[in-house]
Amino acid sequence: MDTHLRQAIDSAVAVVWGQGARVSQIVPLAGDASSRSYARLHLDGSVPATAVVMVLAGSALPLSSEELAVFAEPLKELPYLNLYRFLRPLGVRVPELYYDGQKDGFLLLEDVGDVLLREAAQQLPTVEVERLYRRAIDQLVLLQIDGTRRRAPSCIAFQQRFDQRLFLWEFEHFIEWGLEKRQGRALAPVEGRALRTIFEQIASRLDRAPCFLNHRDYHSWNLFVQNGEIRVIDFQDALLAPASYDLATLLNDRDTPEVIAPALEQTLVDYYHTAWHQRGGDEFAPDLLWEEYNLCLLQKACKVVGRFYYLELGKGKSGYLRYIPPTLATLRRVLGRLPQHGRLREILATHFPE
Length: 354
Known about the structure:
This protein is about 50% helix and about 15% strand. The protein has helices spanning about 5-15, 80-90, 115-120, 125-150, 165-185, 190-205, 245-250, 260-280, 285-315, 325-335, 340-350; strands at about 20-30, 35-45, 50-55, 95-100, 105-110, 210-215, 225, 230, 240. A 5-stranded antiparallel sheet has the order 1-2-3-5-4, with helices on one face. It has a two-stranded antiparallel sheet with strand order 6-9. The chain is globular and about 70 Å long. It starts with a helix and ends with a helix.
């Protein structure tokens, strides 16, 4: 950590908790695919005993995915701060912002601990796993229904929509990195046309679905368990999307199938349907939810395969290929539920025999 940043953090700690507060230790925290980095501050002479510093990358504007570049004008504030100000009054359990130090390249945040939802669920009996994931669904339904009802023009999430263009961008990302660049050759023209036709059909179907506020990365690596409650991080890419998009992410991301067996998956989809209506959501027939959920899951799994090969092959970030086999298993499972897309299963099986 450079001297200027350290001095700015020390100054922020004194502003927030008084001149008697000081940083006794800085411990880097494991990151993810993000360009941001994080560290835990151990504090003396103050409460709380720890805080987290988010170190922003470059100019830090925007803190948003490259494919979401849809804004007519340059953003005037961090998407993270914009969404924080919208989500916190809703009751979504996001970390408290202690200090806005973006001019010096950092934010000072509440420490929500180290217990990821997925890790908390490991080795627990099924009934306890279900209890934890129900709490995550409760937070999701709150975000989706209350957030959509209270939509505000000032919140950038409502200026972005997971539309046909974006679904197709991610499908094309899968073709480019998950198939062509991984194998070092272009698809045969007839095969490429067949894949793109199927993907266009799926993207069009999801584009017609009613849209609600979605976190976009609502997976167990962005959800922490603290004192039995779910804490939500990494929400800066929130946007409008089909209702079941975040649900498909929650129940099927990365290693999640190790703790969410298919029977529990169905139980939790049913719970989501119940919680949705109990919170006053629009009528949503169970069979329609199940179809939309599986189409979102299929699309997301393709995106993940493409993204992780991109990170490994295009960005040189190692460690992501270990998530490919469970994602392919998810694809195989979901295609078994969507017999209308048997041709897609045939094509993918020629590229991923497993």
